[in-house]
Design goal:
Layout: E1 4-7, H1 10-21, E2 26-28, E3 35-39, H2 43-53, E4 62-64, H3 80-89, E5 94-99, E6 114-118, H4 123-132, E7 136-137, H5 152-159, E8 165-168, E9 179-182, E10 189-192, H6 198-205, E11 209-210, E12 239-244, H7 247-256, E13 261-265, E14 277-279, H8 286-302, E15 307-311, H9 319-329, E16 334-336
Parallel strand pairs: 1-8, 2-8, 4-6, 5-9, 10-11, 12-15, 12-16, 13-14, 13-15
Antiparallel strand pairs: 2-3, 3-7, 4-7, 5-6, 9-10
Helix pairs in contact: 1-4, 8-9
Bound molecules: threonylcarbamoyladenylate and magnesium ion.
Length: 337
């Protein structure tokens, strides 16, 4: 299959919507990361997403809508708490898990009785949903296990030959996937941190639980609340190790290492580092780190080094999402100095 990449325009959006409404898969931009979009209510179409990504079948999709009414047929009821969250954070980088109706096929929900719903803010994605006339299932547009793509070129690198069309809507603003919260249990529980922070969620909901898997590795026998949490994720080919230390100790540690290493550090410490280095944002600005992290992970592979030592970010606010993704890309390997 030849993969076409088209700049977002009225015409290309129409083409994307036509492919999606007739059962195909399209690479689509959102404000978080690029997605692989297909009709969420069409089992065969969703099956094509799993195929293109090489994704395990028990890992459910996020269903994207363009207005709240579109959620109504998909969920048993929209809980009050969901309405409050929607009012504050939609459209935007927040996914809400609710009890699903039979309208959502089990391939879309990974056989769970819940469905994850998000209303993205990216104008191009919103238009594609409206024109397609259906809710759009869209996981991140990377091959399963790789860092999520934040521009059309990276989607092409992973999906060339596997899907007919990618819509280029520019760089993603947030750079990390949406925050995922479940309202299907007794208490609201954060399953995946993202652009909407735990502090912001608590302002609306009061106390929320933070799933253990956000900062720790699941044990072999533990059940994942969010199936995606159990798989290796966001991993470049290079081995990544996280270093928890202040800037001075980190720089010193790097200088003591043998050859064939690279550094994943902050812009404001790069000049002190003498090995090949890739930067991911400013040390004091979590949003800038979020925006850069996945690109930086892909760039690390180009250094040709064997191991990358990554300087650990702050875990506050959006920093929790940055740390969560970095931890997975490092296979949970952390050295504390
Ligand atoms: O920002 C995003 O959310 C991007 C863009 C494209 O919208 N999408 C995205 O999808 O990150 P994906 O498939 O890469 O990640 C979805 C995560 C997975 O970890 C999955 O296990 C979890 O959400 N998830 C989906 N439905 C769920 C459900 N019903 N219960 C628990 N976890 C669920
Ligand atoms: Mg993903």
């Amino acid at each position: 299959m030849k993969t076409e990449v088209l700049k977002a325009s009225e015409e290309s959006i129409k083409k994307a919507a036509e492919i999606i409404s007739s059962g195909g898969v399209v690479g689509v931009p959102t404000e978080t990361v690029y997605g692989l979009g297909a009709n969420a209510l069409d089992e065969d179409a969703v099956g094509r997403i799993f195929e293109a990504k090489g994704r395990p079948k028990d890992n459910p999709m996020i269903v994207h809508i363009s207005c709240l009414e579109e959620a109504e047929p998909l969920v048993k009821k929209i809980p009050e708490k969901a309405k409050l969250l929607a009012e504050k954070f939609w459209p935007g980088p927040l996914t809400i898990i609710m009890e699903k109706t039979d309208k959502v096929p089990s391939v879309t929900s990974g056989n769970l009785d819940t469905v994850a719903i998000r209303m993205p803010s990216h104008e191009v994605m919103r238009k594609i949903i409206k024109e397609s006339g259906c809710p759009i299932a869209a996981p991140s547009a990377n091959l399963s296990g790789s860092p999520s793509p934040t521009n059309a070129k990276y989607v092409y690198d992973d999906m060339n030959g596997k899907i007919p069309l990618i819509i280029d809507g520019g760089e993603c603003n947030v750079g990390l996937e949406s925050t995922v919260i479940t309202l299907a249990g007794e208490k609201p529980r954060l399953l995946r941190p993202g652009g909407v922070t735990p502090e912001e969620l608590s302002e609306v909901l009061g106390e929320i639980e933070i799933d253990k898997a956000v900062k720790a590795k699941l044990e072999e026998n533990q059940k994942a609340s969010s199936p995606g949490m159990k798989y290796k994720h966001y991993a470049p080919k290079i081995k990544v190790v996280i270093i928890k230390a202040d800037s001075e100790k980190y720089v010193e540690y790097i200088s003591e290492q043998k050859e064939n290493i690279a550094a994943l550090c902050f812009e404001d410490e790069a000049e002190k580092i003498s090995v090949p280095c890739v930067t991911y944002g400013k040390s004091y600005d979590s949003a800038s780190q979020a925006k850069r992290l996945f690109d930086a992970l892909r760039e690390l592979d180009e250094t040709g080094a064997e191991t990358a030592f990554a300087h650990s970010p702050s875990e506050e606010g959006v920093g929790l999402a940055v740390y969560n993704r970095l931890l997975r890309s490092a296979g949970f390997e952390v050295i504390e100095l």
